Amino acid sequence: MDFNLTENQLMIAETIRKFGDAHIRPDMMIWDEEQIFPVEVFKKLGELGLMGVLVPQEYGGSGFGYFEYVTAIVEISKICGSIGLSLAAHNSLCTGHILQFGNEEQKRKYLPKLATAEWIGAWGLTEPGTGSDAGNMSCVAKADGDHYVLNGTKCWITHGKSCDAAVVIVRTGEKGDSHGMSAFIVEKGTPGFSGGRKENKLGMRASETTEMIFDNCRIHKSQLMGEIGDGFIQSMKVLDGGRISIAALGLGIAKGAFEASLKYSKERHQFGKPISEFQGISFKLADMKTQIEAAELLIYHAADLKNRNKKVTKESAFAKYYSSEVAVRVSTDAVQIFGGYGYTKDFPVEKFYRDSKLCTIGEGTSEIQKLVIAREILK
Ligand SMILES: Cc1cc2nc3c(=O)[nH]c(=O)nc-3n(C[C@H](O)[C@H](O)[C@H](O)COP(=O)(O)OP(=O)(O)OC[C@H]3O[C@@H](n4cnc5c(N)ncnc54)[C@H](O)[C@@H]3O)c2cc1C
Q1: Which of 6, 46, 260, 376 could form a disulfide bond with 314, CB atoms 3.0-4.6 angstroms apart?
Q2: CB 293 within 8 A of CB 324
Q3: Atom of ligand 1 nearest to the CA of 368
Q4: What positions carry a catalytic annotation?
Q5: 125 alpha carbon – ligand 1 mean position (Å)
């Protein structure tokens, strides 16, 4: 594997740095404080090609691979985890599901709108009673002539209210049967489809998280992706790729927290010298950087396999599990290095600290990643 960044990766990183300075940093603490989901930022990211990073150019996307995608998520998340999370959910989940499992007509209809951010996408798997145990879901679709009628509630859905299109996985068969669920595309404005309660969150506060409610929501059978009963298996494959993006989100947060800590440790003086000269601080920085490097290697290993269309279940779980935990540890150490100032909103590390925790929960908790890894290595 070549560890040098490609020209495209360097270009993406530079573009995002400039974009972040102009369009994210000035307002991100207001969005965080007031839980504002800044749709206009995503429209601008769409103009830059970052809302359809993996979508082939023939469907209006950028046509890049996973290396470029990882760079995009890392660089955005170094600035703001919320924007990184929404970017990941839009690209990997909704758009990624249609890209992998939509038929030609569905791809032609939805991908150009999603890849340019004309439309914002959501992906609904989780329900109030079923998170880790998603296959036990209750939300149902019942066949009625050429239509399906959806009923039930999804929760914790990124862009559940603001989305223009959602991929939703619902029960069409028996509980306990992994072929008892199917994936449909539902458009905003479809009668019976609405966004519900918005969560008031610890972190990732500018990334919208809401319920999605289906109340006798009638959709045409042409909105089904693949065959009836394919939905859960499709979702597991979508999550294999999605986990690389959450790993990248964690890496970006860890890098942002580390870079801020490194700078501060050289500037802050106590006992007549920079705090970086105390072994207690420099060893912390050494530990932070080592973990970041290791997380990066796991992520690029998984990304490389994905680029070559290899099975990536175990490797994306390695990357997601490790990188998420690193994000939490590094941002915790960052707050410690900043001392009292790290506990305030005047410095960036308290936000990294709050945002980091989502990485160990979303798209499969750390415990579920260990379950996936154990299952794979014990085969
Ligand atoms: C900000 C945010 C955005 C999200 N966005 C989306 C989205 O866009 N779409 C979507 O579908 N979902 C989304 N989710 C949901 C997310 O994927 C779930 O929260 C996650 O899968 C965990 O489910 P849960 O919250 O129900 O926890 P639970 O499954 O109830 O887990 C509770 C605890 O039990 C542990 N546990 C559960 N089962 C086991 C087991 N077998 N072995 C060991 N430990 C176990 C878990 O690890 C966890 O520690 C989002 C969540 C958040 C917080």
Answers
A1: 376
A2: no
A3: 47
A4: 363
A5: 10
